[in-house]
Amino acid sequence: TVVLQGEAARVEAVLKISDALRAGVLALEGKWWDGDAPSAAAMNRLTPSAWSPAGQPAYNETYVTVEPA
């Protein structure tokens, strides 16, 4: 288990190493929605509330640190 720390949130996740991604890239797959529960869509809390110049959500460049839990 690792801790992902972004500017706005901290999320725990299970780490799996794969050669399917470039070094330094992290992928969090899937979504879940639990209304207002503290765990609701926790990965979305890592992303900034920002828009790209093209008017799309700016989710492609979210920087986090990864540390052991």
Distance between the termini: 6 Å
Mean pLDDT rating: 81
State the secondary-structure class: mainly beta
Number of helices: 0
The percent range for helix content is under 10%
Give the H and E element order.
EEE
Widest β-sheet, arrangement of strands: 2-1-3
- How much of the sequence lies in strands comes to 15-25%
Number of strands: 3
Outline, from the CA principal axes? globular
Question: Largest sheet at a glance?
Answer: 3 strands, antiparallel
Low-confidence stretches: none
Tell me what you see in this structure.
With 69 residues, this protein is an all-beta fold. It contains no helices and three strands. Strands 2-1-3 form a three-stranded antiparallel sheet, with no helix packed on it. A hairpin with a 4-residue loop joins strand 1 and strand 2 (10-13).
